[in-house]
Every structure is written in C-alpha cells, then in structure tokens.
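[recover] target loaded
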C-alpha cells in the first residue's frame, strides 16, 4: 500500500461503493473485545478468556440506516434486521476486498459473529457519540443505524472521536429515559463501568421488555424518540449546528422542549401488549403498509 492515508481513503470509498452510509476507522482497543464471545458456544475451552488475535489491529466500522417510517411508527416492526443485513453484506464484501489486497480481515456482524462491543468502537472510529440510551448518535443519521465491524491488519490511518455536543445535550434531555417502557435507561449522572464513565443501561430490563411484549426483534423506542433521530433536512442540520456551538446549554433546553411538544409520545405503559396492561401503542402513525387492519378482518 502506498500510505495509511491513501489506504483509509480507498477503504472509505469502497465501503460507500458497497452500500455503507457511514464509515469510520480506529485502532482496536482490546478492552472492547469480549473475553467470552457468544460465537464460542459449543467449542472446547470456552471458559478460557479469548486472546485478542494479533491481526485485529484496526477496526473498520460500517453502518446503514433502518427504514425511517416503521422505526418512528411502531417498535414492534423488525426494521433492525434490514439495516443489519445491509451492513453485514458491506462488511463481508469489504473483508473479501481486503483479503485480495493480501491482508487478514474478519467481519463482526450481528446474528452469529459479534466478538466485539460495537458502540465504543463506533465512538473511537469517529462515527458518533454514545448517548444516554447507550446507542451511538451520528451527525448524519442520529442513532438510526445498525453497524458491522471489520478487524484487520491492513495499515490504515485511523479517524478520531468526534464531538457533536451529545454529552452536554444528554445531561438536560432525558426523553429516552422518560419514554422507555421498561424503565431501563438511567435518569441520573454517568457512572463508572470497568474504568469508563457512561450512562447505565439496565440491559436485563430492556431485554425482558422485548421478550415479554415484542418478541426478539427488539424495541428501538429510545432510538425513535431521540431528538437526534431526524432526517437530515435543513431544520435539523441547523438545530445540530446551534446546539453544538452553544456552550450555555440554553439551546439544548429549548430544543428538548420543542421535541416534547412537537412529537408527544403515548404513556410508556401503553406500548405493552394488552395482556400486560398495555395497548400495543405506536409512537407515531404507522405507514399504510403496516396497517393490516385496513385489509384484513382482525
Ligand atoms: S430498546 Fe426499548 S426497552 Fe430497551 S432501552 Fe430502548 S426504549 Fe427501553
Ligand atoms: S433522547 Fe435525549 S437523553 Fe436520550 S440519548 Fe437522545 S439526546 Fe440523549
């Protein structure tokens, strides 16, 4: 390769060409590798911690958006899988491309081979910042995306973490925590988890809500209600610029208030299925093709 800078340019161009909306590169921090990955289930020596393979020097993150309308409308619709599928395809093809260049590469994709904690890798790779709901918020798509990662020893210039004002915004905004049906998102300050400060997410509560009321496809309400999850039109681009450059926090409060009044959500309990005291509620009006009752006698 001619230089790590040119290689980074090549990898980003190829990833976009293969269909990725987002691309970022970082040196892989071994703290983000699972010591006991799910993919080793059924293998021998599963109790011994994984030694991070030497060729996992860099991590390339790719990401594609979930469909906007179903995401906003109904947490019971499996939009994650369509974005995950597209990110998987990009990662798999990127691996083939890197191997043709003569370097090692391994995809980490949902479903069967996530051996890494993806959100902090996205942060390191400059894709976005981690919000109160633990999901990564990007300037382009808010938190409406699903990622995949490629680890490699291809020498490539890493990106740097970015600051789009999320850490300050989340201090005042608690919209995701107030709307989470499971009460899984913390309303308080960040806490230290294994040496890193972050907002605590009660993953068990979140997972229980999915499985008790929605099934394994997940919920994503915290993504739908987050003020950053907006299509990048001029209004939202301007709002992002204003809040990023306002050190007083005033614009954060104004925008949070606007979000609450413009996009009010139903009572979180109503998202539950009727047998658990809810109404199968939607956050916003579903698109016509999700309204089965218009076509079928229910
Ligand atoms: S996915 Fe749903 S249950 Fe889980 S944290 Fe987000 S809003 Fe709460
Ligand atoms: S909804 Fe508000 S508090 Fe939650 S992640 Fe988004 S900006 Fe942060």
């Amino acid at each position: 390769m001619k230089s790590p800078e040119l290689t980074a340019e090549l990898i980003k161009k190829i990833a976009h060409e293969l269909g990725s909306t987002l691309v970022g590169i970082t040196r892989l921090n071994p703290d983000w590798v699972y010591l006991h990955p799910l993919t080793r289930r059924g293998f021998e020596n599963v109790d011994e911690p994984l030694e991070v393979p030497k060729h996992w020097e860099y991590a390339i993150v790719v990401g594609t958006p979930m469909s906007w309308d179903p995401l906003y409308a109904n947490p019971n619709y499996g939009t994650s899988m369509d974005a995950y599928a597209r990110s998987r395809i990009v990662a798999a093809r990127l691996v083939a491309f890197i191997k043709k260049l003569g370097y090692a590469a391994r995809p980490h994709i949902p479903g069967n081979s996530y051996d890494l904690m993806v959100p902090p890798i996205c942060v390191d790779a400059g894709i976005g910042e981690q919000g109160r709901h633990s999901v990564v918020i990007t300037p382009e798509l808010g938190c409406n995306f699903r990622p995949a990662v490629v680890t490699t020893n291809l020498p490539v210039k890493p990106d740097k973490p970015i600051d789009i004002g999320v850490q300050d915004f989340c201090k005042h905004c608690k919209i995701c925590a107030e709307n989470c049906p499971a009460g899984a998102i913390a309303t308080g300050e960040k806490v230290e988890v294994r040496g890193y400060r972050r907002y605590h997410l009660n993953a068990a509560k979140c997972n229980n809500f999915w499985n008790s009321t929605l099934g394994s496809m997940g919920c994503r309400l915290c993504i739908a209600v987050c003020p950053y999850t907006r299509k990048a039109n001029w209004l939202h681009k301007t709002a992002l610029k204003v809040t990023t450059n306002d050190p007083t926090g005033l614009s954060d409060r104004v925008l949070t208030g606007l979000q609450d009044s413009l996009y009010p959500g139903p009572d979180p309990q109503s998202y539950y299925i009727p047998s658990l005291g809810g109404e199968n509620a939607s956050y916003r009006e579903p698109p016509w093709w999700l309204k089965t009752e218009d076509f079928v006698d229910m």
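[recover] notes: The radius of gyration is 20 Å.
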